Predict the 3D structure of the following.
Amino acid sequence: MKPLRILIADDHELVRKGLRAVLDGQGGWSICGEAVNGRQAVELARQLKPDVLVMDVTMPELNGLEATRQIRKELPKTEVLILTVHESEQLVGEVLAAGARGYILKGDTTRLLVAAVEAIAQHKPFFTGTASEVVLGGYFRPGQPPRKESRDLPRLTAREREIVQLLTEGRSNKEAATTLGISVKTVDAHRANIMHKLNLHSVTDLVRYAIRNTIITA
Amino acid sequence: MKPLRILIADDHELVRKGLRAVLDGQGGWSICGEAVNGRQAVELARQLKPDVLVMDVTMPELNGLEATRQIRKELPKTEVLILTVHESEQLVGEVLAAGARGYILKGDTTRLLVAAVEAIAQHKPFFTGTASEVVLGGYFRPGQPPRKESRDLPRLTAREREIVQLLTEGRSNKEAATTLGISVKTVDAHRANIMHKLNLHSVTDLVRYAIRNTIITA
DNA sequence: CTTCCTCTAGGGTAAATCACCTAGGTGCCT
DNA sequence: AGGCACCTAGGTGATTTACCCTAGAGGAAG
């Protein structure tokens, strides 16, 4: 097995050092280059043709999403692992659409990072956290074109989003029920469904979800 | 000259690895510990009494600002270098008020990071980017009491902000009580006080307050 | 037509929170 | 020394949520 060649792209030198510390040398892997923005990532990928590209999303000049699109079009053999701080469903969708096969958070353990690179290198998708749920939630339908209205909140129904908004705006179940003219138990059921769907465990999680997905504003 | 002992605090393992890669061994320096949140940073600082504490701002359980306040009060000999992605004047002001003597961005070069630790170790302030401008802009008026920037979080005590963070991160009263080692009833009392002080009426209001005031992030 | 999803709503029990109250100890400032 | 803010913590009772179920009506999709 030839040694795995990894290109890393992150505008933060500190993170690049961290990636080097974690990935370089690991099981015969080698970091073949470092890019400080998306544009450079595209250039270096063209030159170096790495097996795996570990890339941040928010970078100057050209963001990781655009860079991924360009690279995946030109170099289908190079697999892209997106490394980001953000965990929003919208972003996961865009990442998938851009052609990345992996999505991992900067807050995840480096063990997970290694596992992700390992999977990606074998052309297996790798997603963490909510990302995996979005994928499992039927986002990927092989052969099918990606769902069109996928940028929003594909997993919640209109009614559920309505409920989310009312609840996260500070209304109790009872108040929401009154506003909607339905039973408290119904709101309760919706609430439970929503929590389960999104794998959340507290109202505050729900509020953060709502803010991240621009259902409400902080 | 005795070797410099550095404690690092960041919730991202990747960043900790990066910090290790950059700082450990550098000119006889040694990383004496790693904290994954502000609370642990306070604990470890108490135990290890490091010369320098390199600390992130946004961390779970207890953010870097609160941690800095507590540490600077208890261990004036330990200098705190704030390491963050955010570059806002408001934050710089808060950092200064909290007692940190240094402020550096994650996007800065690691060379600058080393220089910052060097300066901090000799009890010289070190600020980069807009931070330095804020400092030079007369934030520090020797002799004068620090400007009463009372618009933000003057109304909550340190303990209350601590509680707010825990609650808005999704912990129940009981869980918060456990992490703080106090009674549920105490948390309950704090909670009621906070709600009353801020004239809020639901947990979700509290979450939005916390996000707006950067106690936590969405 | 059957199946699946959504919205609706109920029962029941356990847990948590809200909204009141009181009150002791500590530390700081005057 | 006294006052004051803060942290602590208990009581009580009402209200709300959490979490487990079931289940019918209506619509969309197979």
